Amino acid sequence: MTPAARLSAAIELIETIDDQRVPAAKALKEWGTAHRFAGSGDRAAISGLVWDVLRRRASIAWIMESDTARARLLGMLKLERGLDADAIAALCDGSRFAPAPITEAERSALTSNSLAKAPAHVAGDYPEWLDPYFAEVFADDRVAEATAMASRAPLDLRVNTLKAKPEKVLASIAHLGATPTRWSPIGLRIELGADARNPGIHAEEAFIKGQIEVQDEGSQLAALLSAAKPGEQVIDLCAGAGGKTLALAAQMQGKGRLIATDHDKRQLAPIHERLSRAGIHNCDVRTPKGEGDALSDIRSSADLVMIDAPCTGTGTWRRNPDAKWRMRPGALEIRLKDQAEVLDRAAALVKPGGRIAYITCSVLVPENGGQIRAFVARHPDFSVIPPSETVTALWDKADDFAAATLQSAEGLLMTPRRTGTDGFFVSVLRKG
Known about the structure:
This protein is an alpha/beta fold.
């Protein structure tokens, strides 16, 4: 496919997403199935165009003074890809499979319009109803922070130290352009260009042997901040597919007792194969059955309970940009209730002197510091371990990392702008 034909396909896909209100990933998959002539390079390029339009939806509509699929694509080429009006016009020449020629109004918008007077939620590309929440956490930096959250995410990998050392794995995947992550001592990063194809990590020997897992650097650091130690009894209360469970097991060096569970047994389904491939033998997966409590035999005995809390996912918008435009206020209310319930459940599992590591992939204060303040008010036997104490001596870059985060009395917040990771909030509390 020519570059111009890829633009036409992207416009068609954006119209489908708008009209049928389907998730972008589903629309892209169905388009690929229906257009077998498109090669993997074409599909990757078209996907990149669509995702970039979704990332910058508000700002490009403002620039173009139009919210049509075509207008948003043209605006994205200016804002995200850095093309000028002449370069865009050369692609949209009306030839076979190419978009129709740009109009005088479109050329004027591409040439003259800017975001100088755009409201914060437009310049930062997030729903207007979230502006008070972003102002609460980021104040005057909210446009800069949100713009970074609208950027393209890299592919991060965590080295499984139960099976390999980072330097060995780095050498084995050097052909993919991997480099060490900035903060995580066990992380590797592969930067992805605008039209980059999936590097096919799952087919790499290092992945097949269980030496690496796909995991954002922020998620790696959140697990590291829990400070799980060999010989402890550790519970991963919201284990899901097991990403942080695997990280905890490596930190524990396979020693001690690790229990993984989740209220949704469907989320737990992939964890068994992942544990086996990673060579983890000290993890007990507790799948819920009916209304019974999968942890009914455990009371006040855990050294550490990790809560990878259900949340709005605002910190992961780089990887799921269409989710932010589908988010509604009611979703936040539901998540706040879920978070309070799982925190209260964790409180009963921790022994005196034990810890709760509360983690969200959200940047919103009500899900983060607000939730922790409410929990401590309900459970005065718990206190927050200051973030400065949380990171001390964990690894050689801990102090610099802590300085890069946004800290509060309740915990620390990573963001794409500050730490180059997804947005993660981490609070560690001690009982007694």
